[in-house]
Design goal:
Elements lengths: L7 E3 L5 E3 L14 H12 L2 H16 L11 H28 L27 H29 L12 H9 L1 H16 L2 H12 L14 H8 L12 H13 L10 E4 L3 E4 L3 H9 L12 H5 L7 H22 L1
Antiparallel strand pairs: 1-2, 3-4
Helix pairs in contact: 2-9, 3-4, 4-8, 4-9
Bound molecules: zinc ion (2 copies).
The site of one zinc ion has 5 residues, from helix 7.
Length: about 325
């Protein structure tokens, strides 16, 4: 069994903090050839590769042919709904079952020492974070995602898009697909920052932040407007030269990649001595402190560029406190 204290430390409450700072892309730090290779590997493996695998399966097994999708009919739309629900149950349910229900590795590598089930809170539906998050993911976010998927496929099928054949534009389609995560993080940084604008936050984004101690089902637990904002960029593929696969993969990426920041563990143990790096500390800190890490800086360092980055270290805590202090002083000065 791995000793998590070889990889991090625990505070008095038992919360786990990984050693070292959250990594930034080489163009924001040390620009060596090996750092570029490590960064490329990090953004491709394992999460992007897994989600790309889901998208390939989706395209060949789940998605009907374009001819069928020319008309909006119950059969194929229901098929897409059911597929999304099953996939979400398998994907999020896998992490939930293993780490939160069976507690296979107990609290080893767990950022927050408590499990959400130990903290019943009034503001959750049924006073239970897990039930609240599950219902919102399945019956709010998933239907919005599938509705967008249906509209986009229907538009492609009817020639309302600038459709290209992926076989004729292999390099373009390949590059766009591999850059999906970069597009998503860039868009998400600005959309997310906007969601923290006070009136919008208290009306909408607070639903997601209710889960201060996130768990897998928190990934898609949103207000409907937040979910719509999350999936909206997929419509851009109707405006640029694109294959329908690209839009579908973007929706899959926005659906399945969010689990990384909400698993709540630094590593998932495999067997006796193995482990998969999850790297969700950046977004965990966002749930804990609210005004840091609006995107995954390991992919695109937007927070570092805009001064909202918390690198996960004690120095990161100090810088965050200093920023907060300056903000309070500025607000007090304006009031006077
Ligand atoms: Zn979150
Ligand atoms: Zn937020």
């Amino acid at each position: 069994m791995l000793n998590d204290l070889d990889f991090g430390e625990r505070n008095k409450r038992g919360d786990f903090r990984p050693h070292g700072a959250i990594g930034l892309p080489p163009f924001a730090g040390s620009q060596t050839a090996t750092s570029y290779l490590a960064w490329l590997k990090g953004i491709l493996w394992p999460w992007n590769a897994l989600i790309l695998g889901i998208s390939v399966f989706w395209w060949f097994v789940v998605v009907p042919d374009m001819e069928t999708m020319k008309t909006l009919e119950f059969g194929w739309i229901a098929r897409l709904f059911v597929a999304k629900w099953v996939a979400l149950c398998l994907w999020l349910g896998f992490f939930e079952w293993r780490l939160y229900v069976r507690k296979q590795q107990d609290r080893r590598f767990k950022y927050n020492a408590k499990f959400p089930s130990e903290q019943p809170l009034d503001y959750f539906w049924f006073k239970n974070q897990n039930i609240d998050n599950f219902l919102r993911s399945m019956f709010v976010s998933a239907p919005i995602c599938v509705a967008f998927e249906v509209i986009i496929f229907w538009a492609f099928a009817n020639g309302y898009a600038n459709t290209i054949d992926w076989q004729d534009h292999l390099w373009y389609v390949g590059a766009m697909v591999l850059l999906t995560g970069t597009f998503h993080e860039t868009y998400f940084f600005f959309a997310h920052w906007f969601m923290h604008w006070k009136p919008f936050y208290s009306w909408c984004h607070t639903v997601h932040h209710n889960s201060i101690n996130p768990s897998p089902w928190t990934s898609m637990s949103n207000h409907p407007v937040e979910s719509a904002l999350q999936f909206a960029p997929a419509f851009l593929y109707l405006l640029v030269p694109a294959a329908p696969f690209m839009a579908m993969h973007h929706l899959n990426f926005a659906t399945f990649s969010t689990v990384v920041g909400h698993v709540g563990f630094e590593k998932m143990e495999i067997g006796d001595t193995g482990a998969i790096d999850i790297h969700g500390y950046s977004h965990y800190l966002h749930h804990k402190h609210f005004e840091v890490n609006y995107c995954d800086n390991a992919v695109m360092p937007w927070d570092q560029w805009f001064g909202s980055f918390h690198d996960g270290t004690k120095e990161g805590d100090r810088l965050m406190q200093a920023r907060y202090q300056r903000k309070v002083e500025k607000a007090n000065a304006t009031e006077v």
